[in-house]
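Case study 2.
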Amino acid sequence: LMPALERQMDTDHYGEYTISNIYFDTPDFQLVRQSIEKPEYKEKLRLRTYGVPKAESPSFVELKKKYQGIVYKRRIVMPYGEAYDWLVNGKAPKENSQIAKEIAWSLHYYGDLKSAMALCYDRVALYSREDSGLRITFDTNIRFREENTDLRRGDDGRLLLEPGETLMEIKAGGGLPTWLTDMLSRFRI
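Prediction:
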């Protein structure tokens, strides 16, 4: 599959990298339960870093909303320690943008959001040479932990998939190009 994809796509300039996330949810997992029900509207809150962060490392606080099949990602960048203190300890951040207000509203609305899970994985991302909206990611070594979710503690956890399994995700702004649908069919994906 990779040699066939590389005829149409390029690997991003980071090569293979580790993504570390903390996902937030209520004690009864309201957000994930709603997501599984496939409602017209759903959202999730996560804190993302690349690699294992230090307090001053850049991090991304993301509120992902999906409405009628369209994903809206509201994201702000701030030092990991500040973001962690905001989302986990309730300490207001310096950031006061519109997106920060939306995230603060979600924190208030759900009231009891907690760091529910750390999820880390190693990723290779490919980008189409012809369509900037087309991206394919391959995630391996997907691991999670529900305790000690502070990402400064490392990117370890229990494996989610069997050894050798890879999660492939196709991200497209519109329809898939014919070359890709033909390739997926040929490889029975």
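The mean pLDDT is 94.
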